[in-house]
Amino acid sequence: MTTLSGKTALVTGSTSGIGLGIALSLAKAGANLILNGFGDASTVIAEVEQISNKSGGKVGHHPADVSDPAQIAEMIAYADREFGGVDILVNNAGIQHVAAVEDFPVERWDSIIAINLSSVFHGTRLSLPGMRAKGWGRIINIASVHGQVGSVGKAAYVAAKHGVIGLTKVVGLETARSNVTCNAICPGWVLTPLVQKQIDARIATGIEPQQAQHDLLAEKQPSGEFVTPPQLGELVLFLCSEAGNQVRGAAWNIDGGWLAQ
Fold it and tell me: What torsion, rounded to 10 degrees, do the Cα atoms 77, 82, 84, 86 define?
């Protein structure tokens, strides 16, 4: 098992779903954790602390709204002050809106680009100097299969995730001769609150819940099964291990065969 004792991981959007699954995996490996997300995070903090107490890690939380570069800077300053910096940055925070291009609300476009793409840039640019100074770092961007293919109604999300993969390649090249790596993970369908909303929309048309879930998976994901947050967490641990040292600028699919079609 990968041991990350003494390393500090910051996972954005980590109070639920994919981000929480990744945070729990990192905590099990002994990393200090900085959680990020809106609302009352006390329950999630307690859940992560229960694991971290066993592995010797420390847990903190910062409520930064990652659509705001100034709040991202405050979060990195918090990490420097309370944890000695960020060793592992997992850019996970994301939102979704579905509409045709001509009907897509401009404010929704702006917020999706800010949270799903620009926050990745700001978190990276602010964390990278500390990683270089320490001589080690991992930047892991949670992209999506939609960073490589399109889907109707998801213009902003697809554009942002394509941008995340492009940024990942550039940072991967710029850090190629260092002990800092930058990679993207591209999940297919994961049963998160974002995906549940799409299932609920099908249910609202009169489809049975089990059928709605089946139909969603059948359209794209040949395995017929959701990717799980713990599976994504294990992939993050691999990228943090020595075995991941030469994985650089990659977009790693974990999608039940979606992109194999």
Answer: -60
Of 109, 157, 189, 226, the catalytic one is: 157
Domain locations along the chain = 8-188+228-253, 190-226
pLDDT per residue over 205-260, tens digit each? 999 999 999 999 998 999 999 999 999 999 999 999 999 999 999 999 999 999 99
Catalytic residue check, 157: yes
Quick one: 169 exposed, middle or buried, by C-beta within 10 A (0-12, 13-18, 19+)? middle
Distance, CA of 49 to CA of 55 (rounded, Å): 10
Q: Are 8 and 88 spatial neighbours (Cβ–Cβ below 8 Å)?
A: yes
Q: Report pLDDT digits (tens) over 154-198.
A: 999 999 999 999 999 999 999 999 999 999 999 999 988 778 888
CA distance 185 to 125: 19
Q: Which residues contact 258 (CB under 8 A, 6 or more apart)?
A: 145, 149, 188, 189, 220, 221, 222
Q: What is the fold, at CATH topology level, of the domain defined by 8-188+228-253?
A: Rossmann fold (3.40.50)
Give 240's Cβ-side CA count (13 Å radius). 27
